[in-house]
Write a structure and sequence with these properties.
Elements (H helix, E strand, L loop, with lengths): L3 H7 L5 H9 L3 E3 L2 E2 L12 E3 L2 E2 L7 E6 L21 H4 L6 E3 L6 E8 L2 H8 L7 E7 L6 H7 L16 E4 L4 E6 L6 H8 L4 E9 L2 E2 L8 E3 L6
Parallel strand pairs: 7-11
Antiparallel strand pairs: 1-2, 1-3, 3-4, 5-7, 5-13, 6-7, 8-10, 8-11, 9-10, 11-12
């Protein structure tokens, strides 16, 4: 079991000193009994702060509806980041949260956010064939032949030495389509269409694995149950 100060600090509630002050103020309880010693060992699920259970004490997983114009980086200088849309406390968790995979600045849609390293590896490993569904708008009318081309498993991307895995293309309008991938190469959707002579004008991801955006509003996040890792 972790020490109380270690636990609260790792969950982003403050530095060790700040946590000690929180405990001294009588704001922390274990099974309803107020604690006064910050070095006491505790069971995370039994601890409350200001009468509320600790937030995701065993690891955090959330879904974010990423808006256009935001970047998936912790660095400054590239524009607004997705982390500005999340609770500041999450950045103080140890480890701090990160996105599972990325969406570029000009792509909107579903991102998973977590502080669980094994979960990031599970979904981003080259061997992990995770379903991703994108809504695509292109610059000129689509042709039915693209359906067979993308499903062939023979589409080559510039600068790569192996073809893309078979992908499912559903044409939904003259310039719109839904594309289902089982891999996640760099700018893959845009590069796949470019390889066949189309330019992607708009790109939106609506599903990642078993997770779907549903009615989640743009710029908002939703906490998810963490799977076994």
């Amino acid at each position: 079991m972790p020490r109380l100060d270690q636990l609260l600090s790792s969950l982003g509630y403050g530095s060790r000193k700040q946590v000690a002050d929180i405990v001294k103020a009588g704001r922390v309880a274990l099974d309803g009994i107020v604690l006064k010693k910050s070095d006491q060992k505790v069971e995370a699920d039994q601890v409350t702060l200001d009468g509320q259970p600790l937030e995701a004490p065993h690891g955090l997983l959330a879904m974010l509806h990423k808006p256009l114009g935001y970047v998936c980086t912790h660095s400054d200088g590239e524009g607004p980041t997705i982390y500005e849309l999340l609770p500041p406390q999450w950045m103080n968790r140890k480890p701090s949260v990160t996105s599972i995979g990325r969406l570029d600045k000009d792509t909107s849609g579903l991102l998973l956010i977590t502080d669980l390293g094994p979960l990031v590896h599970r979904y981003t490993s080259p061997r992990a064939e995770v379903k991703k569904i994108y809504e695509v708008t292109v610059d000129h009318a689509l042709e039915d032949s693209l359906i067979e081309t993308f499903a062939s498993g023979e589409v080559m991307l510039r600068g790569e030495d192996r073809p893309c895995l078979p992908a499912k293309l559903d044409i939904t309008g003259s310039h719109t389509a839904s594309l289902t991938l089982m891999e996640g190469r760099y700018h893959q959707v845009r590069r796949m269409f470019a390889s066949q002579g189309w330019h992607v004008e708009k790109l939106h991801r609506r599903q990642f694995g078993d997770y779907q955006l549903g009615t989640l509003e743009v710029g908002r996040w939703q906490m998810l149950d963490t799977p076994e890792v």
